[in-house]
Amino acid sequence: MAKVWGLTGSIGMGKSAVAKMLRREGVPVFDADAEVHKLQGPNGALIPAIETRFPGTTGPEGVNRAKLGAAVFGHPQELKALEAIVHPAVQRSRADFLRRNRARRLVVLDIPLLFEGRGKYRLDGIIVVTAPGWKQRARVLRRPGMTPARFKHIRHLQTPDAEKRRRADYIIDTGTTFERTRAQVRRLVTCLHAKGGR
């Protein structure tokens, strides 16, 4: 049975880059965000339910993220309604992923809101991706449509980076060069394979 590790990190910390590095090292990674994009994309399985609950937020290209975001951003009840549609579907996809990869030594679940969410995960450990605050801010503010106010609000909603690092089994620091980050990932994979015992 595969060892299951959770990968998380606050916005702009470089988690997606680390997930790609893990895949290059041969580790299967389940990307919850990518799964949501697929489910909400063109002909996505969740489009009918989202359109019924949030009329006018979908089209031929799938969910219109700006419209759906406007419908739920700052509205806790609406956000809960959306989560009630999305979360069960992602959980089913994750269960399928774990079944397909049960013979592997280890797998990683990329879970952006591991500490903030209400999901229950059976994990063998947690990997936290981190970077200095100034670098996080610079990365996030380069994103289209991002503003300092929105970034501040997102940070307020997320568990502080220091707390995530305190609760981590392993930490990957992306505040350094790409090569040094990749070296950290390679060392981590070697260590996790050794822990797997196979």
CATH homologous superfamily grouping of the largest domain: P-loop containing nucleotide triphosphate hydrolases
Report the top-level CATH class of the largest domain: Alpha Beta
**Using DSSP, what is the number of strands?**
7
Q: What strand order characterises the main sheet?
A: 2-5-1-6-7
How many strands, which pairing sense, and closed or not: the largest β-sheet?
5 strands, parallel
Structural class, by secondary structure, is alpha/beta
What is the chain-wise order of helices and strands? EHEHHEEHHEEHHHEH
How far from one another are the termini? Answer: 10 Å
Number of domains: 2
Based on the structure, what is the oligomeric state of the protein chains?
single chain
Beta-strand residue percentage:
5-15%
Radius of gyration, in Å, reads: 18 Å
- Tell me the helix content: 40-55%
Mean pLDDT: 92
What would the principal axes of the Cα set say about the shape? globular
Write the layout of secondary structure elements.
Elements: E1 3-8, H1 15-24, E2 29-31, H2 32-40, H3 47-53, E3 58-59, E4 62-63, H4 65-72, H5 76-100, E5 106-110, E6 125-130, H6 133-141, H7 148-157, H8 161-167, E7 170-173, H9 178-196
Parallel strand pairs: 1-5, 1-6, 2-5, 6-7
Antiparallel strand pairs: 3-4
Structural write-up:
This protein is 53% helix and 14% strand. It is an alpha/beta fold and 198 residues long. It folds into two domains: 1-28 and 105-198, P-loop containing nucleotide triphosphate hydrolases (Rossmann fold); 39-100, no CATH class.
